[in-house]
Amino acid sequence: MAKLTGQCLCRSVICEVADQVVYSMKHHCSDCRRATGSAIKPFAGIAIEKLRLINGQDSLMKNGGDRAHAVHCARCGTLPYSLVG
Description:
By secondary structure, this protein is mainly beta. The chain has one domain (3-83): Metal Binding Protein, Guanine Nucleotide Exchange Factor, Chain A, CATH 2.170.150.70. Helix content is 8%, strand content 45%. It is built from one helix and eight strands; from the N terminus they run βββαβββββ. It has one helix spanning 30-36; strands at residues 3-7, 14-18, 23-27, 41-45, 51-55, 60-64, 69-73, 81-83. The strands form three sheets. Strands 1-2-5 form a three-stranded antiparallel beta sheet, with no helix packed on it. β7 (69-73) and β8 form a beta hairpin. The longest helix is centred in the middle third of the chain and has 7 residues, at 30-36.
């Protein structure tokens, strides 16, 4: 199975996920615009259990609650993933 890897801008956070995208969307609500600093937040829906943090657990900053939150790199602000509830 193919794996998708990503990293934040400062390369502190590195994550890997199975290439099993269930859906993809672009969202433009005020929360998504604020989280990304952009007009839209493009994302792909993949089960959270398939996400593996390779590096940077100590560099993560979570904004939101247990059911839905955005996770940013505390050093550079990159949004490596979010949980949608």
